Amino acid sequence: MDEKQIIEKAKAGDEAAMAQLVNKYSERIYNLALRILRKKEDAEDVLQETFLTVVEKLHTFDGRSSFFTWVYRIATNASLMRLRKKKVVFQEMADSTDFQESVESRVFIDWSQDPSINIYDEEVKQKIDAAVNKLSDIYRSVFVLRDLEGLSIKETSAILNITQENVKIRLRRARQFLRDYLSEYFEERIVH
After folding, report:
1. At what angle do helices 3-11 and 15-37 cross, to 10 degrees?
2. Could you tell me the domains of the chain?
3. What is the pLDDT of residues 58-117, one digit of tens each?
4. Which of 142, 4, 156, 168 minimizes the C-alpha distance to 69?
C-alpha cells in the first residue's frame, strides 16, 4: 500500500493506518525537535504535540505538498513555539552592511583539515552544540533542516513557509556565524 492510500485510510479513521504514519515519521520528528530544542523531554513533547496535531488536522491535508513536508512543518512550528515560550535569549547576528563587510574581509582557518581535531571528541561536540544553540531560531531552524537533516532548499522552504532565496540567505548567515564562532575556538586549540 502506498502512502497516499495509507493517508486516505487514516483520514477515514483507520487506526492501523494512522499508526503506520506515526511509526514512519516518529524517529525523524523526534530527531528534528531534539536538534532544535536540545532537550530530550522537549523533543518528546514536540513529538507528541506533532502527532496530536496530525490526528486533529489530517482531514485538512490536501496533498499539495508531500505528507513528509506537512508533518515536518508541524514539528518545526511546534519546536519554534516551544523556544519562544521559554523566552530563550539568542545572540542575534547583525543584518547590517558593517557585519557583511567585516565577515567578507576575515580570513578563516580551515580547522576541518587539522588531524588533531576530532569532531567526535566530546569537548568539540559540546562546542559545536553551543555554537548551534547561539543561533537565533530563524537561523537555527534553517541550519538544522538543511545541514543536519539533509533536506533540500525546496523542502526547507516549504516546511518553513519562506522563499528559497530566504532559505539560502539564512543558511549562509548561519554557516558564517558558526564558522566565525568556531574558528576562534579551533584557532586556540591549534595554537596550544
Report:
1. 110
2. 3-86 (1.10.1740.10), 97-191 (1.10.10.10)
3. 999 998 889 999 999 999 999 988 887 775 444 444 444 444 444 444 444 444 444 444
4. 156
